[in-house]
């Protein structure tokens, strides 16, 4: 695993969020089932990608809940559909990792336990997110998505 270290500009997203504790993976599925039938209501999308976003109060404390988002990047906040919210992912440095297949937890574990301890970087207190673009195929071993892990 060889993540690319990049700096991103801030991203404005609109979508649906939910609180979650670690290992409550059913909440992720439920959130996307609520969001996908409604994503076309967002008229000011920047692209056709979907973003899975995690906003931690304290990344190092596993007992604390955190917010998960099913969202898309938008050009502006001129139109937010009823029942949806906006969030700004701040500008910052990220380790960008390509994830292939459907076992996201395995890829994330490799980033955190194998790459990070030897990288010279530490986790920064900013959102983690995944971008599901053209190569994302839900449920397929050929699926690809980009993992963004905030580092400093």
Structure description:
The longest helix is centred in the last third of the chain and has 12 residues, at 104-115. With 152 residues, the chain is α+β, with helices and mostly antiparallel strands. It has an eight-stranded antiparallel β-sheet, with helices on one face. 15% of the residues lie in helices and 37% in strands. It is globular. It is built from two helices and eight strands. It has helices at 25-35, 104-115, and strands at residues 4-8, 11-20, 50-56, 66-73, 85-89, 92-100, 128-132, 144-150.
Task: Give the arrangement of secondary structure elements.
Blueprint lengths: L3 E5 L2 E10 L4 H11 L14 E7 L9 E8 L11 E5 L2 E9 L3 H12 L12 E5 L11 E7 L2
Antiparallel strand pairs: 1-6, 2-4, 2-5, 3-4, 3-7, 6-8, 7-8
Q: Report helical residue fraction.
A: 10-25%
Write the H/E string, N to C: EEHEEEEHEE
What share of the residues does DSSP label as strand, in percent?
35-45%
Poorly predicted parts: none
Look at the structure and give the mean pLDDT: 94
Q: Which class best fits the helix and strand makeup?
A: alpha+beta
How would the global form be characterised?
A: globular
Query: How is the largest sheet built, in terms of strand order?
Result: 1-6-8-7-3-4-2-5
Rg over C-alpha atoms, rounded to the nearest angstrom: 15 Å
By DSSP, the count of extended strands is: 8
Individual helix count: 2
N-to-C span: 18 Å
Largest sheet entry: 8 strands, antiparallel
